[in-house]
Amino acid sequence: MAKRPSAMDRFLEWTLNLDRRWIYLLVAVSVITPIVVPIGLPVTTTSSTRSAFEFVETLKPGDVAWLSFDYGPSSAPENDPMAEAFLRQCFLKKVRVVVIALYPLGGLGLANNVLAKITAEFPNLVYGEDYVNLGYKDGAAAVMRRLGDNIADAFPTDVNGRPIGEFPILRGIHDIKQVKVVFTAATGLIGEYWITQVHAQFGTPVIIGPTAVSAPKYYAFLNAGQLVGMLGGMKGAAEYEKLLRAKYPELDRFYGGTRLFTATKGMDGQTVLHTVILLLILLGNIAYLRSRARRRVTDVGGGRGPAGTRP
Amino acid sequence: MSFDFGRVALFIFFFVVPVIGIALGLRSPAMRSRIPIITAFIAGMIPILSLYIPKGFLSGPQGMSPRLDRWLIIVAGFALLLGIVNVVQNNSRRIARRDAGWAFSVVLLAGLLVTGSLGIWGAVSGEGIGFRADGSTTPFKWIEDRFFQPLQSTIFSLLAFFMASAAFRAFRARNTEATILLVAAGLVMAGRVPLFELLAAPFPALQPSAASVSLFLGGLTEWIMNIPNGAAQSGIIIGDALGAASMAIRVILGIERGYLGLGAGE
Lengths: 311, 266
What we know:
The complex is a heterodimer.
Chain A: H1 7-16, H2 20-36, H3 47-57, E1 64-70, H4 76-92, E2 96-101, H5 107-121, E3 131-136, H6 140-149, H7 151-154, E4 181-186, H8 190-202, E5 206-210, H9 215-223, E6 229-230, H10 233-247, H11 252-255, H12 263-301
Parallel strand pairs in A: 1-2, 1-4, 2-3, 4-5, 5-6
Chain B: H1 5-27, H2 34-52, H3 56-59, H4 64-97, H5 102-125, H6 139-170, H7 176-191, H8 195-199, H9 207-252
């Protein structure tokens, strides 16, 4: 008579055939709960984020930095906090910022929103002197090549159609070589173009803020010294926020509270979700290995073949 | 008046020659591929030569290569236009045939028409497509903020659910390679977040130990990302670049002709 499976075996068997809707429910609860009730988990910083932050710290008041919105709404929760943190740091240091968007699916809309949000926090900023929005241009790599020769060739006007010669911020800045740093918050290939088309050809230092999915690729550029620093996904953004808070305690009003969405707050959700997924993977593997072991025993017992072979 | 050799050469290469090519192509189908191949050869060679021959007509501010770069931005704009034409053609056809899901095509075309019209109106009227001078949003921006952005975010958010389900089902220690992948992925997932601090949250006494373990895992994750991952990515990127270069040479030399979309006998 066949041995009746134990309760543990039945549970593991149930796990192997778990309806995916239970997983979806678990994911939803894991993400929503920490957003509603923030946990405030600690964030540790990595060298790639620290080097990006420290490079921006070396800029002097009046220097010009370049911020490119190379992402769309799909990755905004990861990329928005990076762009916001970079803008806050620049404005606190009185570094002037030129903003552009090269991502066709909503890059400009996000640039407008982030600029409106951050410039409202610094009421003394003057458009055209402290920052300017040059808008969107199609053909990312081609635009970057033009920026190396003449910025006005690629962006003759700002986002509102005013000639860029009107803006004091761009006086004396003829091409991208005169910009102190390019920060690209990027999804997809455009971030890579800044390295290959701008840093490699014109030498302008580049900091990248890619989504977590595309971050692994950029370690190669980081190791080759072609990137000043990198903010990998939401974790990188949270690290940058931590460094920023430590250096500028006045930013606690943005990063200390729980009302605004920040990467630090988002990391709570990501941590809970990673934990849940890891536990699911662990459980799935225990169930799988146990089931495989049981099958081997059955196969040997039934005389259907040597252990380790499957019918 | 000085003779602008570069400008004249570009005019001949990219206007006179293609026009002759079209005329010849109308007479003989076999000629249809010749002129595009010659045009591609010239367009490909000019930027390469400009790097090696420091002559004003090639690489100067008004030289042939910078002019081609400027044209590239315009050509990229046409690619968007081509995409719109393609979307309209395909979806109009689906609606006319009453194919499955034709109602979605109606929504898509209506969205394209309304959003596109408002965008063009913003550009023509000088109002723009972002904020007005008084800080209020334009109709285009209103649609973008209330429809486009939430929809895009929703689609991408679904990935978290699919990835969790896929990870649960696919990440199994079936063989040695799968086990290595499983362990590396597990370490990186655990090392990127303060996982042990979360697990030790109900036990304050364990927090310092949890922090130490997290710090160690974080270091290990960085090592995995920097060394094995960085090395593999370098190889992939270099291989990718060599592949792109060889494909570019094939196109320039007319060996690769797939992009021409030629039919039989052409």
